[in-house]
Amino acid sequence: MKSIMVPQSFIHPLFYQEGDVVSSKSDLFYYDMMALLNEREERPWERGSETPFKVFQNEKEEMRELFRQRKKEDVKELMKSSIGQFITFLFWMNHSPVPGFQNFSDHVASLKIKPFNVTERLFFIMQKPNQYVSYMQLDELFTEANKQAKVNAIIKRK
């Protein structure tokens, strides 16, 4: 694996700080950053990968239990990861890499397949990632996006 400095467009207080490095395919937005830097890596969005949705499904119950136990600090890293997975899923189901966070609202608005009011809902979640209501909203966004991705796939097959 190649280690790279996180590009400026991916710097966001929730995910990466100035000077952070990514070096693993499991790092949030790894493939998207590599595409931005024109590195030769896989391009999972070309096939509309469901991997981010599956990752969330695997972490969902653990987060629910941490919220139930009121362990907000323990849930913060899982929520951060899940929010990143949702952003990835949102762009990949549109067969596009995540472009980063500069002009993020415009990029989301330009997507053809997306849940209703996704920008507002996502910004709420990103502002308050360790609140239970954010977890519930994220779960709903994943559910809606997954349904839309499946409907779109069926339509394209016809």
TrEMBL record:
Residues 51-156 form the YpoC-like domain. Pfam families: YpoC. InterPro entries: YpoC. It comes from Priestia endophytica. This is YpoC-like domain-containing protein.
